[in-house]
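Internal tracking record. Fields below are filled automatically when a chain is submitted to the structure queue. Please do not edit lines marked as system-generated. If the sequence contains nonstandard residues, flag them in the REMARKS field before resubmitting.
Queue: standard
Priority: normal
Entity type: single polypeptide chain
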Amino acid sequence: MQEIKKHFYQAILISVFTVIAGFAFKIFLADIIAKETLTLYYTAIDIFSFSLLILIGFRSSMVVAYAKTKKDESIINIFRYFVMGLVMFSWALVLPYLKHRVGIEIHYWYLVFTIISMSLYAYLTNQIAMYRLYSLMKRSTFLEPILGAIWFFIAYYIAHTSDLKSLFIMTIMSYLGLSVYIWTQKRKEIVEPKIKEVEMDSDTKAFLKNAVLSTVEFGSGIVMIYTAVFFLMHYYSIEELGDFQVVTKPVLMYMITLFVFPVFRFLLPELSKHHANRDIKAITHLQHWFYKFSFLISGSFVLLMIFYSEKFVSLAFKPEYHGAYLYLTHLSFFFIFIMLNAFQLSLIKASGAFAKALIIRVSGIGFFIATFYLTRLLYSESSVSVVFGLVVAYMGMYIFSFVEVRKIMRSLKSLT
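SYSTEM-GENERATED OUTPUT FOLLOWS
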């Protein structure tokens, strides 16, 4: 138990550096690059990230399946097929959408290499998560903002490329650099499985089924954030969209990076092992520790946003981003539900109930959409209603996942 806590805390400390470095760099970009250009860039990266959700969603299933079967060849070969198919899909459909509908004025090849580099990075990070190469995982996380900043300065100040081109060069080259680093370091410990035909036995079929469910489940969680972006694009001005894209969403994603992603990287495998061993005491101990940790972190976040969010936005960003502090204050209140949901969904998936985890995630989208339109219809057309919709969505998911976790614990007790 102490070992997993150690990995969890170390991951947070490394993430603190990447968050501070990454956010400082975003502040720097907001100061030197036009708001509209920066908003279009982040929107394009969001759309690319959305198309890559299928790769990220595979991670939980890969970790659980490899821990149980050790059949890495079958797992990785299936994953390779999905990566190649996704790259072709994005090339055919996502890139034209960005060029002709979103209005990204940049050559096609910048977009092509962006999707390739991001896909390659996702492929390799899923592998090191599956093999539990925690040290390599931490080092690559540490290097990510550093490489990004280096490549931007090369493109913008040395090569003197345009604002938008510099941003895409930064993305392409940093992800390619990280991929090369992970590949070379991973080969020292793990031999890359050969490409071969997949034998569809019962374990492989179970992995594939859970991978699809996990992909849709994970994607459903991210869809809520992108639904917020869509609502802001559709119903409000680019100024309000910029407040959310450049300031609010990065803060939320940094908090998720710090305190939610480590749950899936470190606690999910541990919960899976304890559930398989029917070790109720270990699960309960881990649950009590994480709940205390969640209340400490989320409570501190709320207090900081209530008293300092307006001052923080005023000091860190240009005056045109001032309105973002209201979003930050409101979103801080529901972060506790994001943390608790992460743990509870991990336990639900560790029990093998991937379908129930998906239902819970989808219910959150339903809560969000219904709350947004009801709030807009009955109370206010303010853009803050978008954040309020997120609050209700995460509260609803917490209630559903809490009930399901109670069922799992009762089931374990009846088996012991």
